[in-house]
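#lab-general

N.A. 3:47 PM
ok so I finally got the sequence cleaned up, no stray characters, all 150 residues accounted for. can someone with queue access submit it? mine expired

B.Y. 3:52 PM
send it over

N.A. 3:53 PM
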Amino acid sequence: MTDSPSHRDKLAFTVLLVDDAEDCLATLGLALEGAPGITIRFARTAEDGLAVLDQEAVSAVVTDLQLPVMTGLELIARIRRQERFGALPIVAISAATDPKTPQAALDSGANAFFAKPFSPSAVRRKLEELIYGGDLWGKQESGVRRRESE
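B.Y. 4:20 PM
back already:
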């Protein structure tokens, strides 16, 4: 089986977007809708996101860190505590201005972090890199780090 672009087009992946801000969900949704084989699921709370993960096969998660009730950091930690999600790509996004936030996201189990406002195309490229296992454009995004295998 090859990993050619035409083969990728035939693969189906579901990306779960978790954010309580409708405009952020819409922006990310627009950025991802043209990605080959990507289906998008939306959740407005961490609890709703966990319910989607329990009910559907999800290929990657993008979550805001500032969510009501359960934070994005707590969501990431709960996902990572489940062995079946050990390799699930997770991208964290946040408008938090604390300089420790990006490292906190990575330490909680995120594969990458983007500060708001972010480039939707940069998030899309990072997701494609994490899902497909390689950077389709042949370049790395600055300020984004892949989580090392444990």
